[in-house]
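#lab-general

N.A. 3:47 PM
ok so I finally got the sequence cleaned up, no stray characters, all 324 residues accounted for. can someone with queue access submit it? mine expired

B.Y. 3:52 PM
send it over

N.A. 3:53 PM
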Amino acid sequence: MRALWAAITLISAATQVAARDPILSFPVDCKLGDDCFIQNYVDADPSAGASDFTCGSLSYDGHDGTDIALISDMAAKGGVNITPVAPGVVRHIRNDADDHFFSAPLDYPDGQECGNGLIVDHGGGWESQYCHLRKGSVPVSIGQKVGLQSALGQIGMSGLTEFPHLHLTLRKNGRVVDPFNADALIYCGDDQTTSLWATEPEYQPSGFVNAGFRFNVPDFEVIKWGQAHRPTIEISEGGLVFWAHLFGAQAGDIMHLLIRGPNGVFVDHTETLTSTQARAMRAVGRKLHQANSTPGSYHGTATLLRNGKVVDRAASSTTLKSAP
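B.Y. 4:20 PM
back already:
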């Protein structure tokens, strides 16, 4: 996710936090850990590698912002509003780029990786940029003053993106500033990082995006779109599968997937993840036959463990039905 109008280099010197510097509010109308999560942070590694402000893996080389992601395309299609991180004046807008919900990324003109978006000037050299908004959703105009409750648009799938999210970039005097660590001379993982958030969003190194049931192993794209879960499955469809979608998976993590039904444990599966991935999916299930296809409620639980500690859990249910 690059700059909307010009490539901006990452900050290379300390940005002093002064009394006039903005105090930031969370810009997305969602609840972190429930219907949204932070997929990527500003890259804190000046080398060819990448790390977030905690020295974790939620970033990639050269990433210049904070990616606040929704759980699916379907969630974005329902309409999720964004607001400014601080009061200011709207300086730039793009509002006519196509979205690519439920499909592969579209081609886009050079310099339009951000898709639909806008820039808000907060004064004192500070500005914030908002990318990947939904086509036609931006209700403000250039020169308009906006406050913390002003709607700036809705999360979409425009520009260079593989999932619906807000890409937020903060700059001072043209240089990128990480709102979780505004002093670039304090290195990632340092307890003395200077946050600009009024209430800092909780850091979640990994977790589940969503989970559900289906009669077969679903395609990963269908899971990302939010169209994989089946609240009812007919025995005649031939299978019962529980899947879990997670972010920030690390090599060595342990995934435990458990399905319980009317007769007790239906599937109990544990595996060790072998690679670090921004997004991943695992699924377990069984083919249905006369001996194991008792109609009723089935409950799935996914547990992610790291170094022996639970990182996150997710659950879902479905009803297995006989053919009418």
